[in-house]
């Protein structure tokens, strides 16, 4: 359901659900990182330089367990390989951008910012300024949450009574509804959900999201409109 | 591991995270993608969002929770329905958060 004639909301209001999700998750990462033996600087630097929630959580767990650096780096590569799909999926909209700006934007491409930008670009909301602002705001929240968690150390307040742990699922729900533009899109979403849940109950659980995404998109592709008759850029 | 070795590990993690994020966008932005790849990529966002939403709502510490006692299930339904009706963004998220918070306060 594209709604291209509606004015685009501000970068902050679009980033806010992600910020509300990143703060508590970043906080949890910060607590775990310090417990795994990272100093405050390294805890914050990982959030600045890597900026990938699940990979960082896995990384500090492996560091705490004394895993060799190479195995940590290879695991990070595997866990974050799904970003290839995100990056390629956004590429048709970035043809007019200078290469340097694409390189900057890609640095802060996470599951959540990708979901946001995929929906925005699909609705022809292509402002580079808002794109980069959303990225900067969300990473700032991630770094701030990480540092707060590292400083708070063992003291972990319960975010559950405020429902804050629901912020990320809620954002996924909003973004998914915005993506349901055709029967093929609905089919891809349903297959992605079913396959991810099924795979999560198998030893392949760490790869459930990437495997479910590839399989669901492949199965739904024959049902998509031919771009020759209906180009994606309207 | 000392902090310097940890920092070098972080640099390695940063490199293998950045390249998959950056290379496809740079390589494909200037030349048009083949039509079949465009069609495939167009359904990647709903596929990955379906997977992420299902896992974040229905997986509780690794186990499936499809019971009506799962507040995330009702929160996601409310948020999704409000998004469909209002096309809002933060409003539906806030309503979902409020429902989950209220649920936990009541039960």
State the end-to-end CA separation of chain B.
45 Å
Instruction: Give the overall shape of chain B.
Output: extended
Number of distinct beta strands of chain B: 2
How does the helix and strand content of chain B classify structurally? mainly alpha
Low-confidence stretches of chain A: 228-234
Task: List key phrases describing it.
heterodimer, A: 234 residues, mainly alpha, 2 domains, globular, disordered C terminus, B: 107 residues, two-stranded antiparallel sheet, 5 helices, 2 strands, extended
Task: Record the SSE blueprint.
The complex is a heterodimer of chains A (234) and B (107).
Chain A: H1 11-35, H2 40-49, H3 53-64, H4 69-80, H5 83-90, H6 99-107, H7 111-122, H8 128-152, H9 167-179, H10 183-200, H11 208-220
Helix pairs in contact in A: 1-2, 1-3, 1-8, 1-9, 2-8, 3-4, 5-7, 7-9, 10-11
Chain B: H1 3-29, H2 35-42, H3 44-58, E1 59-60, E2 63-64, H4 71-86, H5 90-106
Antiparallel strand pairs in B: 1-2
Helix pairs in contact in B: 4-5
Quick overview:
The complex is a heterodimer of chains A (234) and B (107). Chain A has 11 helices and no strands. Chain A is mainly alpha-helical and 234 residues long.
Describe the protein in words.
The complex is a heterodimer of chains A (234) and B (107). Helix content of chain A is 67%, strand content 0%. By secondary structure, chain A is an all-alpha fold. Chain B is extended, with a radius of gyration of 20 Å. Chain B has 2 domains: 1-31; 44-106, no CATH class. In chain B, 78% of the residues lie in helices and 4% in strands. Chain B has 107 residues and is mostly helical. The chains are: A mainly alpha (234), B mainly alpha (107). The interface between A and B is large, with 112 and 77 residues.
